[in-house]
Amino acid sequence: MTTASPHPDHDRGLEFDVATLISRRRTLGLFLGAGASAALAACTPATSPDAATTGAASPAASASKAAAPSATPSPAVTSALADCGVEIPDETAGPFPGDGSNGPNVLEASGVVRRDISSSFGSSDTVAEGVPLTFTLNLLDNANGCKPLAGAAVYAWHCDAEGRYSLYDSGLENENFLRGVQEADENGQVTFDSIFPGAYNGRWPHIHFEVFESLSNTTSAGQVLKVSQIALTEAACQAVYASDGYGTSRQNFPNTTLASDNVFGDDGGIYQLATMSGSAGEGYTASLNVAI
């Protein structure tokens, strides 16, 4: 279930990505001036399902776009602030984090800072196919009046439509699709364009994520603020798994419920169940408040 598409080839590490990102922002500020910079900020990419199907720009450019501050808090941010007060549960990063804790470390690779995580980067341009999914995390400082965690960073990863993880599963050791890092904007929001994850036995469909204090801390040991997971809704899973390309997931999904899941089962995923909208034909959007 993979196709190839053109994608930048970088191998100079995340520190190079960060330096490039800062340099480009500084250059834009000098060139455009205050007025044009404000206009650029107002054009932060929307989180429509169609965005997940478009090709990604260069990693540094994608990071710059996603990090551009919104002019005003979105309805999702307003809702997140109203609902804040309960810290999201800590969860396992699982056996396939790709963060260097048990093998490969994608966080050290140049190109990992990006919004569109559907394709591999670096030495491969393989694209993971599936129903488009755009998901947004609203990061909130629970100990500081639920103030948005502007400038924090999120590393997100999940399995493909068949339940396989890049970097680990057989035949995918040289792929790194469905993994990426984003920097939170002034509203504490990060957004990723991806595909709907598959289902495998023993787990409810989910997305892993780690939150760091800043983008530069994502390669520093001990700098993780929170490790948790997003649970996807039953209705969305049923609709997606009935579509083409999710045959394995269609068979596996009925075998695990939220109550029997070894991560979400203790509370039914009440604090990790995403708010979702969309369709299997057009794609889905998902949003989750992450109080830390």
From TrEMBL:
Residues 128-203 form the Intradiol ring-cleavage dioxygenases domain. The keyword Metal-binding does not apply. SUPFAM superfamilies: Aromatic compound dioxygenase. Pfam families: Dioxygenase_C (PF00775). InterPro entries: Intradiol_dOase_C, Intradiol_dOase_core, TAT_signal. GO terms for molecular function: ferric iron binding; oxidoreductase activity, acting on single donors with incorporation of molecular oxygen, incorporation of two atoms of oxygen. Keywords: Dioxygenase, Oxidoreductase. This is Dioxygenase subfamily protein. It comes from Arthrobacter crystallopoietes BAB-32.
